[in-house]
Design brief:
The protein contains 15 helices and eight strands. It is α/β, with parallel strands linked by helices. Strands 1-2-3-4-5-6-7-8 form an eight-stranded parallel β-barrel, surrounded by nine helices. The protein is globular and about 65 Å long.
Length: 350
C-alpha cells in the first residue's frame, strides 16, 4: 500500500494495478512507481480538481450513467470474473451483479439461499475483473436495516459502485416465480434505505427497487412507494414488472415525471423497441440475466453432443479456442510482467 494520505471518496474503489499505471502514463518500472507515488502524494494535498489522472471513480462513472436522464444507458449482467470480462470486451460501460445469476452460478435458487457473504465475494471477483462500475443486486438487504447497512458497507469495501435494494420481505423469492410476493411495509423499507444512505453517503449509488407491480398492487401503490423511497434518500427508482409488454412501466414513467431517474429490467417485455424507452426518458436498462442464461444453453448443448457422440470433434469449431481463453484473461500481460519483475537468472514461464 502507498504510504501517502488517500482521498477515499475518489480513490479507495480504484485498485492501483499495473493497468492503472499505464492509464495514468506511468512506466512499469521501479522508477516509474516511485514517480507515481511522488505525483500522487503531491496531488493528495490538493483538491480533486488537481489530480493529473482524471479517470473518474467507479461510483462517479455509475452515477453519470444511472443518474443522468440525458442519454439512455445499459448495464450488462455479470455473475463472475469471466462474464464481467466478456461484457467489458463487448463494449458495455457498466455491470449489473445479478442476484439470480450469482445464485445460479453457485448452485442455489434465487431465494436468499446464497448468503450475503457469498454475494460480496462474487462481487469482488466481478470488480477485479474489469474497470467497469458495478451496480449490485442486493435483494432486500438480507434482513432489516442493520443487515442492509452492513451489506452496503461491505460492498463498498469490495469496490462496488452501487447497490439496488428491493422492497421485498426476507427471505425473498425471485420476482418471476409463483404468485406469492409479500412486500415490505413502506416505512420499514424506507428505514433500510435511510440506514444505507447514512452508512455510505454518496460513496455508493443507491437504487430503490419497487416490487409493488410484481405483487399485484395498483399503480398508485407503486407511485406512493417511489415518493417515499425518494424521500428516504434513493438516487434512482427501479420499477419492476412481470408483464410481457412495457405498458405499466411506461404508465409509471409518465406519472412519475422523472422526480428521480427510472431504471428498468425488460426481461419479460423484451420485444419493446429501445426507442420507446428513450422517448419515455428512462435512464437505464438492465440486461439482467442474459449471460447466465446463454451459458446454460451453450453448456447444455455441448454436454449433450459430447455424451451422445463420445468425442469433441463436432463441437470444437463452435466453442472458444484455448488461444481465445488465454487472450481474454491476458496471459500476455503475465509474460511481460515476468520479463520485467523476475530475476535475470530465472527461467520465464512457458
Amino acid at each position: 500500500m502507498f504510504d501517502v494520505p488517500i482521498n477515499y471518496q475518489r480513490w479507495s474503489l480504484i485498485r492501483i494495478t499495473t493497468k492503472r499505471y499505464e492509464q495514468c502514463g506511468v512506466r512499469q518500472s521501479k522508477a516509474g512507481l516511485q514517480d507515481f507515488r511522488m505525483k500522487y502524494q503531491a496531488q493528495s494535498a490538493r483538491s480533486n480538481a488537481g489530480h493529473q489522472c482524471t479517470r473518474p471513480s467507479p461510483v462517479e462513472m455509475l452515477r453519470a450513467q444511472v443518474c443522468a436522464n440525458g442519454e439512455l444507458s445499459f448495464l450488462m449482467e455479470a455473475h463472475d470474473g469471466l462474464s464481467a470480462t466478456i461484457a467489458e470486451r463487448s463494449g458495455f460501460k457498466g455491470l449489473w451483479a445479478s442476484g439470480l445469476s450469482i445464485a445460479c452460478s453457485l448452485g442455489y435458487r434465487d431465494a436468499n439461499e446464497a448468503s450475503w457473504t457469498q454475494l460480496v465475494d462474487a462481487v469482488e471477483r466481478i470488480v477485479d475483473s474489469s474497470q467497469l462500475p458495478v451496480l449490485v443486486d442486493g435483494d432486500g438487504g438480507f434482513g432489516n436495516f442493520n443487515n442492509a447497512r452492513l451489506l452496503a458497507r461491505k460492498l463498498l469495501q469490495r469496490g462496488a459502485a452501487g447497490v439496488a435494494l428491493e422492497d421485498s420481505c426476507f427471505p425473498k423469492m425471485n420476482s418471476f416465480v409463483g404468485d406469492r410476493h409479500p412486500i415490505a411495509d413502506i416505512d420499514e423499507f424506507s428505514g433500510r434505505l435511510r440506514a444505507v444512505k447514512d452508512t455510505v453517503a454518496n460513496d455508493l449509488v443507491l437504487v430503490a427497487r419497487i416490487e409493488a407491480l410484481i405483487a399485484g398492487y395498483e399503480m398508485d401503490e407503486a407511485l406512493l412507494r417511489a415518493h417515499a423511497y425518494a424521500d428516504a434518500g434513493a438516487d434512482a427508482i427501479l420499477i419492476h414488472s412481470r408483464r410481457s409488454t412495457a405498458d405499466e412501466i411506461l404508465s409509471f414513467a409518465r406519472a412519475w415525471q422523472n422526480r428521480l431517474p427510472v431504471v428498468i429490467v425488460p426481461t419479460k417485455y423484451y420485444r419493446t423497441p429501445i426507442s420507446v424507452y428513450r422517448k419515455a426518458r428512462i435512464s437505464t436498462v438492465i440486461w439482467a440475466n442474459h449471460s447466465m442464461r446463454a451459458a446454460i444453453a451453450a453448456m447444455r448443448q455441448v454436454c449433450s453432443r459430447i455424451i451422445a457422440e463420445e468425442n469433441t470433434a463436432s463441437v470444437e469449431p463452435n466453442i472458444a479456442t484455448l488461444d481465445e481463453v488465454f487472450a481474454l484473461l491476458k496471459y500476455d500481460e503475465l509474460a511481460r510482467a515476468e520479463a520485467l519483475y523476475l530475476r535475470p537468472d530465472t527461467e520465464p514461464r512457458r
